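Hello Y.,

Per our agreement to keep a running log of every chain we model this quarter, I'm adding this entry. I've kept the format consistent with earlier entries: sequence first, then predicted structure.
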Amino acid sequence: MKENFNSYRYHYPSRRFVVYGYRGMVATSTPVAAQAGLDVLKQGGNAIDAAVATAAALTVVEPSSNGIGSDNFALIWSGGKLHGLNASGRAPMLLTREEVLRQGYKVMPFYGAVPVTVPGAPGGWKEMVRRFGRKTFSENLAPAIDLAENGFAVTTKNAFLWNEAMGFYMDDGLTDGPFRHIFDTFTKDGICPGPGELVRLPDHARTLREIAETGAESFYRGNLAQKIDDFMVSIGGYLRAKDLEAFAPEWVEPISVNYKGYDVHEIPPNGHGIVALMALNILKKMELSARETSDTYHKMIEAIKLAFVDGQRYITDPQKMTVTVDDLLSDVYAEERMRLIGKSAILPESGDPRSGGTVYLCTADGEGNMVSLIQSNYNRFGSGLVVPGTGISLQDRGANFSLEPDHDNCLEPGKRPYHTIIPGFLTRDGKAVGPFGVMGGFMQPQGHVQVVVNTVDYGMNPQDALDAPRFQWVGEKKVQLEYSVPDYIAAELAAMGHEVIPMFNQTDFGRGQIIWRNNNGSLVGATEPRTDGTIAVW
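Predicted structure for the entry above:
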């Protein structure tokens, strides 16, 4: 065997099968993180404990995609009911539109202190355990602390994303000043780890231990909060200890539409899961032909376009929206939007309904509990800022704010921004089918739509639904097609007026996980072929 074989290159397609279990299952994008959740299940925890253990472990093993300074959202099935948790943070009280304009920005930047919002992930973990968990908070964070302290081998896709992210900072000259700490923390002498290399993150371990021992209080009202405050003051940033102290996760009522007999559930705004629901609301009124036809691709692309432009116009902190969820999800409005879809690609515009870098995981246990959870830095290592000596990479969710004064999502102090991360959940006749998700920026609602259509319209098993070729609408009439989409479909779509553009890499099409519960109580799971995903099963 060659010692230095190329783990990025494969000569033959790999085949995955669905995985079955009964007592517990964890699905996520890195094997050791899935195993962390399964270990907690085997030690007497439930699906909620397993989700928190997995989420904390993912901050260690996939630091370019999520971190301690991330936000998260969760859909939790427990006690025969679906519960929604919004653990996303708000803009700092010192951050105003006028201040950003004064600095010379015309749009919100992705990097530096300006787009940093309050991190919600640690508070979200604690709240999930408080309300539904069986193990202690410290017990659930123990596997992540062990991984950070004693080390882990970097997986193939994670190594690619890690190097890609750091390469971006180096190419843009973001290596000095406040950005130097990201290199101190996540590289060795400026070099990122490759596949199979052993990494230890001692700062990360100390911070996770402090979060565990204080029930996340240190992060929001103690030592860690003060370290974040001190760092932001030192670089002229805006986030303060008072902003952290004011944070509280919020339990929300999930929103849903019925799609051909199945109820598809999402977190309400400020997340953009409603985009997937709006698109499905349009599609349920249309006849879809065979899966691999230009007609099916065209209808899905057009429905997603129309839903997305409405989402980008109206989604923000729900207290600041000028339309309601009911407005956007009304059948009358869906009918109106559906009538815009013809035989040719359209240039979409938002309507008026009043007139008519992320990780995803899902878990299940033998008692009926199930969790759909998503967590993200947003862009490559978030803002590029790491609080010195802590391993806390601060997210850049504020980059999604608008600076247009009449826009629903215009930046305001204390406001939650439009959020791209969305967990999904499927039920039928009031019973849980299970959690699903496809992470990846603005691909996420598009991935949700494609997985639901694959499942409901075409009867695909979970692995087939994830393996199927994907598309991504990227604005105007532009659409990316995955390499596995047949050439004849690309040609026919182009003839219909779609501007088919090359895909950049397979990760652009999202990384998904699914767990369904069968009628006999067994669990069936599937993991994304576009990442290092695995199903840990009991």
